[in-house]
Design brief:
362 residues; 11 helices
Amino acid sequence: MIVKNFESGDRMNFNRSKYVMISAISAIILIVIGISYYVFNVKANSPDHAIQMVEESLKTHDENKFNNAVDVDSLLNTSYDSFVDGMINFDKTMPEDVKDSVANFTQLLKVPLMASMKTAIDNYVAIGSFEPQDKNDLNKDNIDANLMAASEILDRAGINKIEFRQIDSVKVDNDNKNLAIAEVRIYQQEAGRDFIFEVVLEKNDSGDWKVTSIKNFSNFVAMMNQARRSQLDRYLEETAAIMNRHDKTILEAEQKYGSILSIGSLGQDDTRNDLKTLITDVVKKDWEVRKQELFNVNVPKGAETLQNLRIKICDLSIESADLYAKWMSDKKAATIKEAEDKRKQVQTLREEEKILVNRMMK
């Protein structure tokens, strides 16, 4: 569950978390940067001119010009709640009381996260990179568990996998001449479809236009949730078929195991050899094939925990089968004890698997 990431941030990989955050920040500013590819015959003090100013400021690394065209604080602030809510609502494995705790926790993250993202954007405008020029400025001690948890939230929002397509239009609102909407078309790789962001520009008291927010960011989050729900349903259906088929094989092997013992005994070499062959050629092989089939399934974000659990079950079952087969030859108490311990671990994890599947199907 996501809450585990919050509670054990020290176990996250620093480099991966930093990459996720930079990718997410890149995606947010991409919506703004992408606008610069739209060509206009513009007039001063028009929304089109503000968009052109974004392009020029990035080319010349003019921070003042960029800040005159983009209200970064407003842009980030209005986007934050939408993708946090979307992430929390999508995670079907998270109990309702935990969702409330996570929601409160993410609000605590909001101020430091917005400050970090703003610093990264300012750095991009200044030098064309999210990385500081002086690597000594990158103080890893300041990237704590909370910030890494926040980077996971950004990744789950789906904004780190968008590609700019084009600007469809820029129009001043008929009812409010101080408001304009730029329709920015992007492609979301995970959802496999286009989405049009409605980027809001507002004219201030000085008559200058600024990018201030993304009007329909919540719709983007809803699209991502729908796409991920469909992917999750496909995963559950496909893997259920795999698990049921192989569970049937294991059940038949267990029945065969009992049949062999019913006509012989563990004190007989022939019986132990027959059991060893059954374990090696049927049980172990079946778990290996099951594991490979699971690896071949496309795993959506919402099923990563379940997939990792299932792979762990396969690994333990293979190890257990190896030990049981070994015990048929060496007859050592230590061997059978280790085999039994792994079998019990498998039983415990399979119960956890059932709980996860039930939650994900709701």
